[in-house]
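Anyone opening a protein record will find just a pair of labelled lines. The record below illustrates this layout.
***
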Amino acid sequence: MACLPLWEDRLGRTLKIVDKDDDPLHQPNICLPRVSPAEDPFYGLETFDGPGPWDRSTLEKMITFSGNDYLNLSTHPAVRKAAAKAALAHGMGPRAPFMTCGHTDYHRLLEDTLAEMTKKDACVITPTGFAARTALLSALGNVASLTSAGRRPTREERIGIFADVLNHPTIIDGLRLVEEQREADVFVYRHNDIDHLDELLSGCPAEKKVVYSESLFGINGDFAPILKLVELRKKHGYLFVVDEAHTILTCGRNGGGIGEVYGIQDQIDICIGTLSKATGCRGGFIACSEGWKKLIQARGQPFTFATSTPVPIIAACYEGIMAQGAVWSRVQEFAALTRCSAMSPLVSLLVGSEQEAVNASRHMLECGFHVTAIRPPVVAPNACRLQLTLTSAHTSEDISRLVAALSLWIPALRADDDRMASRLLMAVEQAEGFAQGTTHISSDSFHSLLSERILL
């Protein structure tokens, strides 16, 4: 997949300069010792029709509604076996950065799989999602500095990066770093406000522009107006970067995220994802073109100087992603299509002050639920909230008990009228029917229960 012409030309010029610096981008392939089929983590890959008893293992003593293990793959037997076999056969694998010792076949196989899933030409695996975000932004900043002939780039030469105000704090940190190095000008637009973004883009003198948005915002639990952003891209020709941290494996028939849901993966230039949430493991990735991969490897410092992800984790990630039969049944178990044709495992309940949010979280703890209070600096002092995350292991009974506990604390949720009580009953019935005889609940039913009373 190729970027827009303006960006393709700038990237090509940047890579020519990188090549002149003789950056060691072509590392030897690391060939791990051959193992027998019985020792091979990927031999006889196991899938399961749906959730099993292991899914509830992390919910035994307290019902957790604050984790990121949306599909409960961290406890999946196939994932456990893959990690264990890889550790027994290869230990941790190369213990140095990619630029020093290269990657293994396991790393390359996972990169190829993620690239195919997001419909990109290449992929870079990073130790964390934070590293993926900052590595990309670091590489973006180098486009301006490398093509300005050894001097500080002028305002026109600097890149203009436009970010939603509710992007994850780690994205904001990466933007601050690039801006402090005077390699880019950062513009923040109002949350999901396309008109404001259009106005900022039109007034920016930079020739090269980037729009960076999460597809599903972790703070609010709402989706970006992705189709409008794609349409605006046609007008301004910006590089479109979408962070699919919360939507990889939870959205799209093949787990490709919101881009797959809308069939616009070819309109997204760079996809940022994580392996620490729905995959149930650890790490991050950048799915992009071959050119961008090369630049990130050379100039994305959070990747360049980070030790390669251990082989057992890579093996576990691959196993979790490839168990598509199990993955898709889990997606169906916990999430139905919402109004925007996407699936969200996140529900954000606005409470108010920091103390009110802390007290609400403590109340839920006393009721047997772990629900995190989101406080400053992540949100404004008067916009603190409870953040709920749904997983494939939660049941309709869990949801009913949760709503009952919430209703004791948050007046807006008190189900003391017939209409609210009937909605609760209908939500539970819909969840049970949706799961085709099981007791697993869908996030759509839960959202429908809360959306009229709570600001999401």
Notes: The chain has two domains: 87-324, 345-450.
